[in-house]
Amino acid sequence: KAGVTQTPRYLIKTRGQQVTLSCSPISGHRSVSWYQQTPGQGLQFLFEYFSETQRNKGNFPGRFSGRQFSNSRSEMNVSTLELGDSALYLCASRAESSYNEQFFGPGTRLTVL
Amino acid sequence: AQSVTQLGSHVSVSEGALVLLRCNYSSSVPPYLFWYVQYPNQGLQLLLKYTTGATLVKGINGFEAEFKKSETSFHLTKPSAHMSDAAEYFCAVSTLYTGKLIFGQGTTLQVKP
């Protein structure tokens, strides 16, 4: 099976812009989660989607949003970018009855200038 | 609520020496526990997991971990370090009731020749 894929791998944006990141889960996985990784805060949970519905949400401002499509692919959007949004954004997918075993993609490195 | 503490942000061992990375968790319900490894500019790769059953779990690349409920610990070990083990290691906790992973701050493993 192909693994989790994320596009693009690298992005450079300026403050105030918005950005959309994409994630394709492993075939058959209906749950997709997003995480933000920074040197200062480490790995933090953003949100989880299952069957096109947000099921869990982390403690991030409303500028961070996501959605999931009927084929389980997911996108996350960050509006009005701030310098502090520079991070590695990781997507993970899992099978529903998997004890939360999550498979991660390579991430999207976002740099905000 | 769950939390994870990894003792030691940096661990240095000689090639061939024992690797011991420490992880303590907090959870009010039975936890699912995971160790992930991250190589530079890559996503997270699952090393091993504890969900139920046997408390000594074996993972990939010769790593193993033991779930000790009385000590709320899930330390990662490997009998003999290889140069290729140099990476960042993350311990994570989850539960039946939430799909998200809560990560520790990570431990960077350095392997000296």
What does this structure look like?
The complex is a heterodimer of chains A (113) and B (113). Chain A is an all-beta fold. Chain A is built from no helices and 11 strands. Chain A has strands spanning 5-7, 10-13, 19-24, 31-38, 42-50, 53-57, 64-68, 74-78, 87-94, 103-104, 108-112. In chain A, strands 2, 4, 5, 6, 9, 10 and 11 form a 7-stranded mixed β-sheet that branches. A 4-stranded antiparallel β-sheet of chain A has the order 1-3-8-7, with no helix packed on it. Chain A starts with a strand and ends with a strand. The mean pLDDT of chain A is 95. Chain B is mainly beta. In chain B, 0% of the residues lie in helices and 60% in strands. Chain B has no helices and 11 strands. Chain B has strands at 3-7, 10-14, 19-26, 31-38, 44-50, 56-58, 64-68, 73-78, 87-95, 98-103, 107-112.
- Return the structural class of chain B: mainly beta
Structural class call of chain A reads mainly beta
The shape of chain B is globular
Query: Count the strands of chain B?
Result: 11
What is the subunit organization of this protein? heterodimer
What percent of residues of chain A are in strands? over 45%
